């Protein structure tokens, strides 16, 4: 079997068009422009790249983009004061604090100071609780993107066996909650899981979110299963720098029914879902109907 390639780049472009259409409607019908504020503390090069592309895509879909770049030594009180201002700014509907933060800042405290309604990363403890209890919440962008691709490929996920490898708060745990919400039978595997190969072989859906290059080989995959590869790993092979996922692409694609490539799979969906969450937050703030198909 040769797997269908789930093209995240193309899917993300479709999501952005949908978001853009909604933004146009909000502007034309109500005179409202959704606004996203991104806060970056310090000069981490990878974070700078992410923030730049988030800003660019926010503007491309017609939303207002505000960037706050703070010095690496910014005091916690000053960062909290800025978040307070953004929480109260009616032109800002989504707030994202780029992680990781410098060591002297308490990440939990900072994230939990964002208004839950504007927490477009879905990391605020209230949103985590709402998602965990199956209530309407802001859903973390990467798992939301994975869910959208799975729903698009399969239609209903009900009754499928899903294995999520990785239990981080950002990807693994919310991914498992979303799959449970779609009536999958969910197993969360992690660094202490015994006989991971055996666990993965039972899965109709495998979501790999570990951060270990090509750790899932094709002979762990049940024939016809869907592999969603969240991992982004920079390696050097044959003297060339390369991005690879957590799944060994060639061997997994030979067995799986469908697979997301790295790059070009989950990655592009993450920013598209950030834009989707911002438009959703804007609609909720004004009591309008939420855009269809842009949230869980
Ligand atoms: P993390 O380091 O917070 O969590 C990794 C998880 O993997 C942990 O829960 C750990 O228990 C598990 N793990 C470690 N070794 C394992 C092993 N040998 N077997 C089974 N499980 C093991 O990482 P994260 O933030 O969840 O990110 C995971 C990967 O996804 C990274 O490569 C990251 O770069 C990538 N990522 C991609 C996107 C995207 O937009 N595509 C977004 C977020 C994260």
Short summary of the structure?
With about 300 residues, the protein is α/β, with parallel strands linked by helices. It is built from 10 helices and 11 strands.
Word description of this protein:
This protein is of the alpha/beta class and 296 residues long. It folds into two domains: 31-115, Rossmann fold; 141-268, NAD(P)-binding Rossmann-like Domain (Rossmann fold, 3-Layer(aba) Sandwich), CATH 3.40.50.720. 41% of the residues lie in helices and 17% in strands. The protein is built from ten helices and eleven strands. The chain has helices at residues 8-30, 45-60, 76-87, 107-112, 125-132, 141-154, 172-181, 196-201, 249-253, 266-285; strands at 4-5, 35-41, 64-70, 94-97, 161-165, 185-189, 205-208, 226-229, 233-237, 240-244, 258-259. The strands form three sheets. It has a six-stranded parallel sheet. A three-stranded parallel sheet has the order 3-2-4, with helices on both faces. The protein has a two-stranded antiparallel sheet with strand order 9-10. A hairpin with a 2-residue loop joins strand 9 (233-237) and strand 10. Helix 2 (45-60) crosses helix 10 and helix 6 (141-154) packs across helix 10 (266-285). It is globular. The two termini are 31 Å apart. The mean pLDDT is 97. The site of nicotinamide-adenine-dinucleotide has 24 residues, from helix 10.
């Amino acid at each position: 079997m040769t797997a269908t390639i789930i093209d995240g780049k193309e899917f993300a472009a479709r999501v952005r068009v949908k978001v853009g259409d909604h933004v146009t409607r909000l502007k034309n019908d109500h005179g409202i422009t959704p606004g996203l504020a991104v806060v970056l503390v310090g000069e981490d090069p990878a974070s700078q790249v992410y923030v730049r592309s988030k800003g660019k895509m926010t503007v491309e879909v017609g939303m207002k983009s505000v960037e706050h770049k703070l010095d690496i030594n910014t005091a916690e009180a000053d960062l909290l004061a800025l978040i307070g201002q953004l929480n109260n700014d009616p032109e800002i509907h989504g707030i994202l604090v780029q992680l990781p933060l410098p060591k002297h800042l308490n990440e939990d405290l900072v994230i939990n100071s964002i208004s839950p309604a504007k927490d477009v990363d879905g990391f605020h403890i209230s949103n985590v609780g709402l998602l965990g209890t199956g209530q309407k919440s802001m859903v973390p962008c990467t798992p939301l993107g994975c869910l959208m691709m799975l729903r698009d490929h399969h239609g209903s996920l009900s009754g499928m066996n899903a294995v999520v490898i990785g239990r981080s708060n950002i990807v693994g745990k919310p991914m498992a909650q979303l799959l449970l919400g779609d009536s999958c039978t969910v197993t969360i595997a992690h660094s202490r899981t015994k006989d991971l190969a055996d666990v993965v072989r039972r899965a109709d859906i495998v979501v790999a979110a570990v951060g270990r290059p090509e750790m899932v080989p094709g002979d762990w995959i049940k024939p016809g299963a869907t592999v969603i590869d969240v991992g982004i790993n920079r390696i050097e092979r044959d003297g060339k720098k390369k991005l690879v996922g957590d799944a060994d692409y060639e061997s997994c694609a030979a067995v799986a029914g469908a697979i997301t490539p790295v790059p070009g799979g989950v990655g592009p969906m993450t920013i598209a879902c950030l834009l989707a969450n911002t438009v959703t937050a804007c609609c909720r703030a004004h009591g309008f109907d939420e855009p269809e198909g842009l949230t869980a």
